Amino acid sequence: MRIGLVLEGGAMRGLFTAGALDVFMENEVSFDGVVGVSAGAVFGCNLKSGQIGRVLRYNKKYCRNWRYCSWRSLLLTGDMFGTDFCYRKLPEELDIFDKAAYDGNPMEFHLVCTDVTSGEAIYHQCDKADRECMEWMRASASMPLVSSIVHISGRQCLDGAISDSIPLKFMEELGYRRNIVILTQPQGYLKQPSSLQWLVNIVYRKYPALLKATAHRHRLYNSQVEYAEKRQSDGAVLIIRPEDSLPIQRITNNPDLLQETYDIGRRTTEKQLDRIKEFIAHAQSS
Fold first, then answer.
1. Using CA atoms, how far apart are residues 142 and 42, in angstroms rounded to an integer?
2. Is the dihedral of CA 158, 160, 163, 165 positive or negative?
3. How many CA atoms within 13 Å lie on the side-chain side of 154?
4. Radius of gyration (Cα) for the chain, nearest Å?
5. Taking the model in full, what pTM does it have?
6. Residues sharing a CB contact under 8 Å with residue 154, sequence separation 6 or more, in sequence order
7. I need a labelling partner for 46 at 20 to 30 A (CA). Which of 20, 61, 74, 103 fits?
8. Which residues, listed in sequence order, are joined to residue 237 by a DSSP beta bridge?
């Protein structure tokens, strides 16, 4: 039985996920396939490359560098997370992403983007850590209002969380009958309609399907959490999530908050490590 891992986004809340993934790697907890959305994709790819600690390291080191993430970058380049810095200079020069290890790991790695024309999810499997893969990563993590639309493979794309924040059903459709789902919000959290929907309506007025998707995103997210919880009751899913709301905002330049969020992810996962191993072992023996 194939075992999958589902990683939601949440921008810098993804440091919680990074902490969980490092615990997985340190304890040789492995999966047959992963799907990541937004931060879940750009941070989760380090699981396939086997680079323990890399996500925390580069985020803490460069979170105050305007080229990495800043309003200045948004004004000068159209992207709050600088495209050249984040997706070329950082992985190729400053904190090198192990492409060979990524390419050599047989674990499937999928990510989710949103087609701005149709408003629907695009699922892409990144088998090789090349420039095209980096562009798909960028597209998956390109949040509305603070990112440029990414043009790739004849499609116009933005943040995958708009159309499929928790792609558990996608993994099940691929044949992953047991899945671990990492969420970055605590139990009981209900997403509310965006207070910036009015601005989204103005900026993306040429894309009515995208506007419909963003307007209904909170309902989709809440229903996906409910579905994941039901599948957990069925024994097919194990959810890892923080016990309380994380101390971090979606975007921050505070390295201490990054560390704290990462540490919460580690502690939460370590507390469930026996349960996680039992879940996987039972799935493998089925």
1. 11
2. negative
3. 0
4. 18
5. 0.97
6. none
7. 74
8. 179
**What tokens were used for 42?**
């750009």
- Contact predicate 179/172, CB 8 Å: yes
CA angle 201, 204, 205 (to 5 degrees): 65
Element (H, E) at 125: strand 121-125
The set of residues, in sequence order, having a beta carbon less than 8 Å from that of 68 and lying 6+ positions away, is 62, 81, 82, 85, 86, 90
Q: What's at 42, amino acid-wise?
A: V
Which tens digit of pLDDT belongs to each residue from 22-71?
999 999 999 999 999 999 999 999 999 999 999 999 999 999 999 999 99
Partners of 110 in the β-ladder:
35, 125
- Cα 154 to Cα 140: distance, rounded to the nearest angstrom: 15
Structure-token match 């080191």, residue found = 61
178 vs 279: CA distance, rounded Å: 8
Pairing verdict, β 155-159 and 108-115: antiparallel
Q: Which two tokens stand for residue 281?
A: 């072992």
| Segment 137-184, tens digit of pLDDT | 999 999 999 999 999 999 999 999 999 999 999 999 999 999 999 999
Classify 3 as helix, strand or coil: strand
- CA 94 – CA 164 distance, rounded (Å): 32
Amino acid identity, position 211: L
Asked whether 106 and 31 are in contact (CB, 8 A), the reply is no
Listing DSSP states for 20-88 in one string gives HHHHHHHTT---SEEEEETHHHHHHHHHHHT-TTHHHHHHHHHTT-TTTB-HHHHHHHS-SB-HHIIII
- Cα–Cα dist 77/67, whole Å: 10
Mean pLDDT of the chain: 97
Contact of 215 with 184, CB cutoff 8 Å: no
Residue 15: CA count within 13 A, CB half-sphere: 27
Residue 45 to residues 39, 108, 134, 244, 285, Cα–Cα distance (Å) = 10, 10, 10, 26, 27
Q: Please give the Cα distance from 225 to 149 (Å, whole number).
A: 27
